[in-house]
Amino acid sequence: MELSTIKDAFDRVAKKQKLSYSKTQEIIDQVGREIEQALAKLQSFNDATSPADLKTVLQELYDNVTGAGTLDFLESAQKDLNVGLSKYAKLLEKLFNPDISKAYRNVDFDIHTVNQIIAGHFYRLGLFDLGDCFINEAGELEGNSLKSPYLEMYQILEAMGARNLEPALNWATINREKLVQNASSLELKLHRLQFVEILQKGSRADALKYARSFLAPFASLHMVEIQKLMACLLWAGRLDSSPYAEFLSPTHWEKLAEELTQQFCSLLGQSYESPLSVAIAAGVQGLPTLLKLANVMAGKMQEWQTMKQLPVPVDLGREFQFHSIFVCPVSKDQGSEENPPMLMPCGHVLCKQSIVKLSKSSTRTFKCPYCPLEATVAQCRQLYF
């Protein structure tokens, strides 16, 4: 709601600015024409022209510029814009709390781990000089171990940008088993691009030889794909006008570079997105809710920083959901280490505290709130997500 309010206010100010600019420019153009006309009259006079005539031209210019309320109109347009800008600034000040320290929790961070996260972020983005500078200034000794994997990745990507697939193919061959475990067909896609390149720049015989050497091993699992590539041999030198022209699309190179980056990070045990970028993006989205919570808790003389769980949900969107979350259908409480989800013999799941309340004792049987079956606490098993 706040973002839509700010956007509406911004749109109104932008509209006023455009209107003020157009009207101001129109008046300036009009004044310019009046001045040009006056200059033309003055230049048409000769030495015999009397000073009175010159004064008359200048007076007419002054009357034309000021008599129509030109200056008043400019002042009015600027004043209207200034009012809109002032209201917008006040709205921003009202909706955005500049003191974000209220949402900060006193956590003892491991400086070494934080430094590695920051340096890894720079290396992941290919900012190697910046990462080296940070490592040196932070006094970290393990910078090279963070840098070398990403340096190899960017060397492969740089070669792909130059249409050289050899480094990528070598890496895929070395990591073939791991790629298969990830259900990735990256190696086949690389060979496919190389095959098409040979078919375009080389001869049909060279392309066929390459297919027999490198594409044949994939035929058992990717027969349809291999058949399409073999049909391309019939269109050697004119593949762009064939039914298989889509193999020449530059998007194949872009998508394959992205997939290689994903698989490279996966084999390193890292996520495709930088953890630091994800953490900051999630923090930006959750910050308004946390600031409101901090203000409300402060008003009630309560300390929210000591809570293990937030009393209000923070909706960050599906892109930030990395773990399963269980909410008890009876108590509506979110599962935690102290109150974990428990599987009953009937297959329904409740939180531990709900089961304890229903049983009233550890040996007494209780009826499942969702089916007729009965169970005891001892028969329930903790679930791990």
TrEMBL record:
<dbReference type="InterPro" id="IPR045098">
    <property type="entry name" value="Fyv10_fam"/>
</dbReference>
<dbReference type="InterPro" id="IPR013144">
    <property type="entry name" value="CRA_dom"/>
</dbReference>
<feature type="domain" description="RING-type">
    <location>
        <begin position="328"/>
        <end position="371"/>
    </location>
</feature>
<protein>
    <submittedName>
        <fullName>Uncharacterized protein</fullName>
    </submittedName>
</protein>
<dbReference type="InterPro" id="IPR044063">
    <property type="entry name" value="ZF_RING_GID"/>
</dbReference>
<dbReference type="InterPro" id="IPR037683">
    <property type="entry name" value="Rmd5_dRing"/>
</dbReference>
<dbReference type="InterPro" id="IPR006594">
    <property type="entry name" value="LisH"/>
</dbReference>
<keyword id="KW-0863">Zinc-finger</keyword>
<dbReference type="InterPro" id="IPR001841">
    <property type="entry name" value="Znf_RING"/>
</dbReference>
<dbReference type="GO" id="GO:0034657">
    <property type="term" value="C:GID complex"/>
</dbReference>
<dbReference type="InterPro" id="IPR024964">
    <property type="entry name" value="CTLH/CRA"/>
</dbReference>
<dbReference type="Pfam" id="PF13445">
    <property type="entry name" value="zf-RING_UBOX"/>
</dbReference>
<keyword id="KW-0963">Cytoplasm</keyword>
<dbReference type="Pfam" id="PF10607">
    <property type="entry name" value="CTLH"/>
</dbReference>
<dbReference type="GO" id="GO:0061630">
    <property type="term" value="F:ubiquitin protein ligase activity"/>
</dbReference>
<dbReference type="GO" id="GO:0005737">
    <property type="term" value="C:cytoplasm"/>
</dbReference>
<dbReference type="InterPro" id="IPR027370">
    <property type="entry name" value="Znf-RING_euk"/>
</dbReference>
<keyword id="KW-0862">Zinc</keyword>
<feature type="zinc finger region" description="RING-Gid-type">
    <location>
        <begin position="328"/>
        <end position="371"/>
    </location>
</feature>
<dbReference type="GO" id="GO:0005634">
    <property type="term" value="C:nucleus"/>
</dbReference>
<keyword id="KW-0479">Metal-binding</keyword>
<dbReference type="InterPro" id="IPR006595">
    <property type="entry name" value="CTLH_C"/>
</dbReference>
<feature type="domain" description="CTLH">
    <location>
        <begin position="149"/>
        <end position="206"/>
    </location>
</feature>
<dbReference type="GO" id="GO:0043161">
    <property type="term" value="P:proteasome-mediated ubiquitin-dependent protein catabolic process"/>
</dbReference>
<dbReference type="GO" id="GO:0008270">
    <property type="term" value="F:zinc ion binding"/>
</dbReference>
<dbReference type="InterPro" id="IPR013083">
    <property type="entry name" value="Znf_RING/FYVE/PHD"/>
</dbReference>
<feature type="domain" description="RING-Gid-type">
    <location>
        <begin position="328"/>
        <end position="371"/>
    </location>
</feature>
